[in-house]
Write a structure and sequence with these properties.
Blueprint (H helix, E strand, L loop, with lengths): L6 H12 L7 H4 L8 E6 L3 H11 L4 E7 L3 H14 L5 E3 L6 H5 L6 E4 L6 H10 L3 E4 L7 H14 L3 E3 L7 H11 L18 H4 L24 H7 L7 H11 L22
Parallel strand pairs: 1-2, 1-4, 2-3, 4-5, 5-6
Helix pairs in contact: 1-8, 3-4, 6-7, 8-11
Length: about 280
């Protein structure tokens, strides 16, 4: 990118490029056939997955072909969104934790959006790429460095793109800082540091029936993310969600000759993929 690009144009063009366009076929993105629609499958339609689903249903260039989850309530909530949108009812898969493989068998799906608990992301991404699907996956995509490398190698081998759906690096203020780095406003950057500064009490605790910070249940008695995510904070000590700050630092810092970053470590914890 030319460093003389002004901030307004930079933000506008980068935002357009950053909203998941890399997970879908280039012929569709660049409008080679205006009648062609992106055919999406959703693996995990909990509250996070439903937010992606709702956005997809608002688009005229997207068909929601299938949804998959392991909880009837989440399926019902998702189907309500579909009905309200006026779009056709998608294929529904409610067949346990391995049910997503049935979705991947659907030849009418171009790309999948994965929004399940963290420890399921890697294997689901691998299976999706091997099934020749474009993949957009919620963070984190891997729980270990080895898993991350396996994702890279699988993408290269299959030719299927994988985009981690981190959104902080495309936030307006973060893109503004990136533009200033490219304009050399700060001079040479030699060290970058960040942290996940986010009050998650309303995410990690609830009454077991709804989200919104009412109640203090988690684990088996929790609802949505409180059912699985809180356990990571109980048994792990560290930055459990490093992509927001790390992605932004890497985004900004890769334009400088040398930087330093804090290491990231992960610990595997098995859980059902409720979201």
């Amino acid at each position: 990118m030319n460093t003389t690009t002004n901030r307004r144009n930079f933000i506008k063009t980068t935002a357009a490029a950053g909203l998941g366009l890399s997970i879908i076929p280039s012929g569709i993105v660049f409008g080679k056939d205006k009648d062609t629609k992106v055919r999406l499958g959703f693996i995990g339609v909990g509250l996070r997955g439903q937010s992606h689903l709702e956005l997809a249903l608002k688009r005229t260039d997207v068909d929601v072909v299938a949804i998959c989850d392991i909880q009837q309530r989440m399926i019902d909530m998702s189907l309500k969104l579909v009905t309200e949108s006026g779009k056709p009812k998608p294929q529904v898969i409610l067949e346990g934790v391995q049910g997503y493989k049935k979705l991947l068998e659907n030849k009418d799906i171009d790309a999948v959006v994965i929004a399940t608990p963290w420890e399921w992301h890697s294997i689901m991404c691998l299976d999706s790429m091997n099934a020749k699907k474009y993949v957009g996956c919620e963070v984190n995509v891997g729980m270990t460095v080895e898993e991350c490398w396996e994702l890279v190698h699988t993408s290269e081998r299959t030719g299927m793109p994988l985009m981690m759906l981190e959104n902080v690096c495309y936030r307006r203020d973060v893109m503004a800082v990136l533009n200033m780095v490219r304009q050399n406003v700060f001079g040479e950057l030699i060290h970058l540091q960040g942290g996940y500064q986010h009050d998650l009490r309303e995410v990690k605790f609830n009454n077991g029936k709804t989200d919104g910070g009412i109640g203090a249940e988690f684990g088996e008695k929790g609802f949505s993310e409180a059912e699985w995510r809180t356990q990571h904070s109980v048994y792990r000590n560290g930055d459990l969600y490093p992509t927001a700050w790390c992605w932004s630092c890497c985004h900004d810092g890769r334009h400088q000759p040398r930087q330093s970053f804090y290491p990231i470590s992960f610990l595997f914890i098995k859980s059902p993929w409720v979201t």
